[in-house]
Amino acid sequence: MIQFSRRSAAAVLAFGLALTTSLATPALAQLAGPRTANAANGLAVGPRVSATQGQQEERIVAVVNDEAISQTDLAGRMRLAIVNTGLPDTPDVEQKLKPQVLRLLIDEKLELQEAKKQNLVVTDEEVDREFARLAKQNKAASPEEFAATLERSGVPVAALKDQMRANIAWNKVVQRRIRPTIQVSDEEIDTRTQRIIANAGKPEYLLTEIFISVDNPKLDQDAHQLADKLVGEITHGANFAAVAQQFSQSATAAAGGDMGWVQQGQLEPALDRALQRLPTGQVSVPLRGAGGYYIFLVRDERTVTGGDPNDIQVSVGQVVVPVPPGADIQALGQTVKKIGDTSHSCEALAAAAKANLPGSTTRAQPMTRLGDIPGELAKLIGRLGVGQATDPLETQAGLMLLMVCDRKVPEGSAPPRDQVANMIGGERMDMLQRRNLRDLRRAATIDIRS
């Protein structure tokens, strides 16, 4: 089976350090064929038209804000979905999945249109780089060999590249529109950390998910039917991760639905209760939650232990910049701070200091238990992520920067603050990008044709 990722380009967010969240566009919605027009969803039934005057007539299956989706587009994407997931290529599967794949194409039109509106451009070189990355992931000797493999499988290369272009465009939109709005407060981090610590002794689950969104209550039944169909196919051998990559509407889709370790009580109550009854290795039935249907696979289970945060070990890099007599310490402090903010590893920090801060000295401390570092300094370092520097600190020797070079967290310890911030930020990112695309759907004129 060829491996594809519907949201393979990662969006990088900063919550004190780099947070990488793979974004999964809400690719599927629940369309069961032609619908009459209404103000709520902007859908309408239209007649068959030719794609272009003077060319051979081709059936148009949908028009999104005056941009057409052809039957050829739909057929190519259907083949891509079936080859990727390993679903059986049967008329029944095609009938169930076709409306959902069409909505994927509709969403991608909306994504590309929004990127264009914001003057965001996706170059052919960016698409080619992503195609080459995917070829390497599939162990192809070259992008050309991978293209030939796709064609032999009946997958048009253009279908995959069009999908990649929309993915990259949407990630750029998210970076510009959503990422700057996400803030995670110290209070939120403290609250989440306390909840994690309080769960000591309770089970946690290594969880994989597929999420099918329900934007319109009228489409709830269609969503449930799709989720039922996916569960049935997975039970009969379809790859869960591949199905998640193609059909899940959660940010975890690019990672095959991998949610990592999820503690009891972390999900909404109805989902949490169902999870407690789900044996390891078994796929759940579709579970109705806020916003849509969830399908879970528990890959492993363990008990949360209450570790000591003081047992976390850190390696710390240090830069000391002498302050010459009569120097403007405020201006020097700004220069030092800029170097700290733009260096994302201890090696980069040392190189930048050597090049830009005359007389500076650098050193790296070996791994040290956080509890063995003096109190205020330990508190300061404990709040840093790997590759993140402090603000300049005034010392007798001059201005000092500290950076965490590496960190080892004992199993069972409360997670570092940056990891908790990443967790909260990723959840918020997922919610906001799905809401943003939902709003684009509602504002669009979408004409689905029989």
Could you characterize what this model shows?
This protein is of the alpha+beta class and 450 residues long. Strands 10, 11, 12, 13 and 14 form a five-stranded antiparallel sheet that branches. The protein is globular. The protein has helices spanning 71-85, 91-117, 124-137, 143-152, 157-177, 186-198, 220-235, 240-247, 269-276, 329-342, 346-356, 375-382, 417-443; strands at 10-14, 18-22, 43-44, 60-64, 67-70, 203-213, 258-263, 287-289, 292-303, 313-321, 361-364, 368-369, 393-395, 398-408, 446-448. 43% of the residues lie in helices and 19% in strands. The chain has 13 helices and 15 strands. It comes from Nitrospirillum amazonense. GO terms for molecular function: peptidyl-prolyl cis-trans isomerase activity.
Note the topology.
Elements: E1 10-14, E2 18-22, E3 43-44, E4 60-64, E5 67-70, H1 71-85, H2 91-117, H3 124-137, H4 143-152, H5 157-177, H6 186-198, E6 203-213, H7 220-235, H8 240-247, E7 258-263, H9 269-276, E8 287-289, E9 292-303, E10 313-321, H10 329-342, H11 346-356, E11 361-364, E12 368-369, H12 375-382, E13 393-395, E14 398-408, H13 417-443, E15 446-448
Parallel strand pairs: 3-15
Antiparallel strand pairs: 1-2, 4-5, 4-15, 6-7, 6-9, 8-9, 10-11, 10-12, 10-14, 13-14
GO molecular function: peptidyl-prolyl cis-trans isomerase activity
Protein name: Parvulin-like PPIase
InterPro entries: OMP_Chaperone_SurA, PPIase_dom_sf, PPIase_PpiC, PPIase_PpiC_CS, SurA_N, Trigger_fact/SurA_dom_sf
